[in-house]
Amino acid sequence: MPTATLPPLNRQFVAHFGEMGSKWGINRTVGQIYALIFISERALNADEIAELLEFSRSNVSMGLKELQAWRLVQLRHQPGDRREYFEAPADVWEIFRVLAEERRRREIEPTLSMLRSALLESPASDAERHAQERMREMHDLIDRLMKWFDDVQRLAPETAMQLMGMGATVTKVLSLKDRITGSAPKKKKKPAAG
Amino acid sequence: MPTATLPPLNRQFVAHFGEMGSKWGINRTVGQIYALIFISERALNADEIAELLEFSRSNVSMGLKELQAWRLVQLRHQPGDRREYFEAPADVWEIFRVLAEERRRREIEPTLSMLRSALLESPASDAERHAQERMREMHDLIDRLMKWFDDVQRLAPETAMQLMGMGATVTKVLSLKDRITGSAPKKKKKPAAG
DNA sequence: GGAAAGCTTCAGTCTTTCTTGAAACTACAG
DNA sequence: CTGTAGTTTCAAGAAAGACTGAAGCTTTCC
Asked: Do B91 and A185 count as a contact with CB atoms less than 8 A apart?
């Protein structure tokens, strides 16, 4: 039985990210630990986390290690206290940015390099030729998305938020850009699926 | 022992998406089935998939059901053949779009509604007050990202690709937009992380 | 109607991943 | 040094999830 306990609102939030964790390939424990740290007023140490979530101390230790590997928590030390305290970045945009970066490094980059190396092989059959064609399409899409994401990410948080904030304006600005650069936008063409 | 077999390039691609599947919360089987369908020249039926991947017929059936629920495969019928044939959209951008939409519906929307309902509660303590503050930040970020994503998604594939293709130009267009709408952009400010 | 083809469901088995307590490690204080 | 507070590692048990074969549907064809 815990001596410290979480208020209902906080508990609900933590539980939700536990569930979500599973759907995301992250484990439930890690999801809950991060949710807890995220909504906490102050940095927490491992014992506090273990007690509030009723996990074993070692489980918390592993979860925190994982979160550190993802660069999602920052380590703090309180004067006169040898324990390690953990907190999440104050800026939610920063969290999003780091998450995206890590995910990219771990999942997108390996996929891209697999695709690149497959594209260098000489196809030995029609099946391989067609497979390469599809892989090239996938590679180009991912590559394009990533290049563009780089650009957005390079903007400072405020500017990026501003870009988001533009909302529907994007479309208008786009056509304006066409006029500026002189490339006439092609419209109306609906490609028929083969 | 299979009577039909996959060429090396195709096998490698399929294997990669099997691995990736795990990291994504999708199961390995489903990842491989989709990879196979994606690089295939022609639509495949369940028996062919089961044989090529050496899965049980029932496993394939479940995987395909899952992929249909995600709207990632299309069902085809060949004249004079009662079996169901499956294929992926020809356009990779379309696949990306559907994937994003479904993920949003299944993961983002429930999170947003959890956050909204939590924000309606009256906080009973400082801990809850602060938790709500953080939840509001998270809610606003997600909401903003989604609204903006809507806009991009609403563009036809070609236009969206064009937007991506703009690359670094985005930044310039942005400041242009500021001039148009009359809001002066703040520049040069690099916020120091707290 | 009923046989056959094709698809789905499901209970049980197998595999993988989580979680834990105990032991080992580390760094510091006295 | 030695003791202690704090953290990490690890082997084993527990839980979750994936996979299968067999049985059961459904549809088509004769």
From this structure: no
